[in-house]
Amino acid sequence: KKTKNRSSLVCDNCGRTGHTSENCWSKRKSSSEKSKKQSESSSNASSPSTSDQDVPKEIASVSKDMDRIVPRQFLRVKIDRKPVVCLLDNGSKISMFPSNWPVHHKEKSIARAANGSLIDVRGESTITIVMKGCSIEHMVYIGNIETPVLGRDFIQKISGDIMHDHILHFSWNNQKYQIDLVPEDKINMSCGTNMTDAEIAA
């Protein structure tokens, strides 16, 4: 049986003699480079674009101990000589007030609510909270919620301890105080303190 002379073989792919297109090294190399480019293109497509990174920063999220106050309890204080009823929420990492409050420092950001939805934040303000004769300066975020929320940052600032008998024990300027809290079911809802979980910033 005669063996076919390799010198008579001509490759349809590269035009060289000695092999056929099925065994062409040039073809395999080209295919490999094409596959690599497709892989890089796919990788780049999955990377965030510049526009994706221009979204407002997220300043806080819900903590796992958000249900520690049951039912929710409210604190009556004075801010700018006006009585204000605030939700005292140790499940919220930050304090946030409604968007009708003045903004001292504008910076758009977002906060994540108890149900996972996002809350638009307009900026920050420094307020003076007066309770039991104590004047306490505190930074709050201003966002699209309906009821002022004093979060864990405020509770920690005053070394607050929320008792089951609806009493807040706190310390300020090396003095100890206690103040009655108001359960949610006893709050006058006409004051605008009826909030959904989606409105509680974290």
Structural account:
The chain is built from two helices and twelve strands; from the N terminus they run αββββββββαββββ. The chain is mainly β and 202 residues long. Strands 1, 2, 3, 4, 5, 6, 7, 8 and 12 form a nine-stranded mixed β-sheet that branches. Strands 9-10-11 form a three-stranded antiparallel β-sheet, with no helix packed on it. A hairpin with a 2-residue loop joins strand 6 and strand 7. The chain starts with 24 loop residues before the first helix and ends in a 19-residue tail after the last strand.
Alpha-carbon Rg, integer = 32 Å
CATH overall fold name of the largest domain: Cathepsin D, subunit A, domain 1
Distance N to C terminus: 85 Å
Low-confidence stretches: 41-55, 61-69, 189-202
Count of individual helical segments: 2
Q: Beta-sheet strand percentage?
A: 35-45%
CATH H-level superfamily title of the largest domain: Acid Proteases
Total number of strands: 12
How would you sum up the major sheet? Answer: 9 strands, mixed
Order of helices and strands: HEEEEEEEEHEEEE
- Name the overall outline: rod-shaped
Mean pLDDT: 74
Number of domains: 2
Task: Provide the structure class.
Answer: mainly beta
Estimated helix fraction: 10-25%
Q: Can you tell me the CATH class of the largest domain?
A: Mainly Beta
Looking at the overall shape, the CATH architecture of the largest domain is Beta Barrel
Biased composition (Low complexity): 40-51
GO molecular function: hydrolase activity; nucleic acid binding; zinc ion binding
Organism: Euroglyphus maynei
Region (Disordered): 1-62
